[in-house]
Amino acid sequence: MKTILLCILTGIIGFIIGRKTARTFSKKSDSEMDDMRKEAMEALTERAEKRKEKILETIKQAKNDFTVGCNLREGENKKGITANDVEKLFDVSNRTADRYLDELEAEGKIKQVGTSGKDVYYILAK
Q1: pTM, whole model, 2 decimals?
Q2: Extents of the domains making up the chain
Q3: For the segment 12-35, what is each residue's pLDDT rounded down to a tens digit?
Q4: Could you report the per-residue pLDDT of 44-60, keeping only the tens digit for each?
């Protein structure tokens, strides 16, 4: 009998706590959700722009025979930056690195040297 009462009491307490918790996580209005989406997109865009600026800086460094920032060996002579360098620099996927480089190329800030494979690298556009 005590076990049954304890189970019923635990169930009632759980139900009350669940109802109070559900109110805290209430559904947001459409306008609140739109504002949250807009803020998130702005933050992602800002982060991407900062990363693209860092890519340009890294290419400038590579042009001057500096290899800081890409986990490259000291003194390694590089003509530009590769997608693999961008992956290491930002710890992002290959696709994200390619997207950053494609966007910079479309903006006319860099140009691709080589056609495919490991020989492809990017330099500053003149």
Answers
A1: 0.60
A2: 39-126
A3: 888 888 877 766 666 778 898 899
A4: 999 999 999 988 888 87
HEC string of 31-76 equals: HHHHHHHHHHHHHHHHHHHHHHHHHHHHHHHHHCCCCCCCCCCCCC
Token readout for 34 is: 């739109």
Q: What is the dihedral of CA 108, 54, 69, 116, to 10 degrees?
A: -30
Compute the distance between CA of residue 74 and CA of residue 72 in angstroms, rounded to an integer: 6
- CATH architecture of the domain 39-126 equals Orthogonal Bundle (1.10)
Measured in Å, how far apart are the chain's first and last C-alpha atoms?
A: 86
CA distances from 113 to 5, 23, 41, 81 (A): 77, 57, 32, 10
- Dihedral of CA 56/116/64/93: which sign? positive
State CA 45 to chain mean position distance.
10
